[in-house]
Amino acid sequence: MDNLLTLLIDGLNYASWLFIVALGLTLVFGVLKILNIAHGSFYALGAYAAASFVGWAASMKFAPWLSLVAMLLAAVTVAVAIAPVIERGLLRFFYGRDEVLLVLVTYALFLVMEDLTKLIWGANPYFVSEPYGLFGSVDLGRMSYVGYDFALVGLAVVSGLATWWALNRTRQGKIVLAVIHSAEMASSMGINVSRVYTLAFGAGVFLAAVAGAFTAPMISVQPWVSVGVVVLSFAVVIIGGLGSIEGAAIGALLVGLARSVAVHVAPSSELFVIYAVMAIVLVFRPEGLFQRIQARKI
Fold first, then answer.
1. Alpha-carbon distance 193 to 46, whole Å?
2. Shortest CA distance to 200 belongs to which of 36, 4, 15?
3. pLDDT in the model for residue 1
4. Is the sign of the CA dihedral 102, 39, 72, 223 positive or negative?
5. Is 41 a member of any domain?
6. Is there a domain that residue 206 lies in?
7. What is the pLDDT of residue 294?
8. Which of 58, 61, 62, 123 has the fewest CB atoms found within 10 Å of its own CB?
């Protein structure tokens, strides 16, 4: 029983941060119709920025709980500083072009941002230990778990619900949904589609940076940390269906639990199991589990 509980908690913990990353990726695809290969780089920037902000807060002898605020501010800083520059200065020139060209452009952006992080933070790993002990430990049965892991699951739930509420219960969200359905029709009705693109891309970058910032205490922040993240997040959105929040949640849970089972039963098959799940879903549902219904153009 304890082993099963450990397996479930490990799976949920892994799925939580992966869902936040995939949520940003699927939001960007839903609005901008871009498969953003550079999405993992925003995760890495969030992690590096969090390491710097938390380190500065520790050097200033601030209260330990303020390290959580520092991580959130790091994610906001990345989104505000990076998203408008990339979307307005680069991506907007390729809207409506061939999908392969957009993939190549975002892949080139990914390589540039990887070198940029190494130029700013160097090649040595960073460790963010301060926030990890803030939530103490949680005893379940005979096992003790780190409280921070449960806090991360809560953050994923809040992120998903907040995104769903913003899209479905606010005026700006309805505008975004109109652009998702048809950018041309939305533009003809007076909606500033260009601004919606900028805001949606900024929200996607923010979600990736939040995931990076709040997983920084759990990992070693080092170059190329973004590679595995972008591959796994693509697996999640492919399983769940591109552009679907519900699909991103289910896809993250499937990937997290599959990885947890593999790690506990056959560690060498960790990556194989994740891609096997994706392959099985694609065989029976090539469009993903929750692909949105698309209007047929005549």
1. 27
2. 36
3. 62
4. negative
5. yes
6. yes
7. 52
8. 61
CA distance readout (Å), 266 to 252, 263, 281? 20, 6, 22
In a domain, residue 196? The reply is: yes
CA–CA separation, 83 vs 103, rounded Å? Answer: 17
Q: Report yes or no on 202 lying in a domain.
A: yes
Mean pLDDT in runs of 10 for the chain (298 residues)? 82 94 93 91 96 92 91 96 94 87 93 93 89 86 86 95 93 90 87 93 97 93 90 90 88 93 86 88 85 50
Q: Report the distance separating Cα 186 and Cα 192, nearest Å.
A: 8
Per-residue pLDDT at 228: 86
CATH of the domain at 73: 1.10.3470
DSSP label at 182?
-
The secondary structure of the chain in percent helix, strand, coil, rounded to multiples of 5, reads 75, 5, 20
What domain range includes position 14?
2-126+138-284
Number of domains the chain is built from: 1
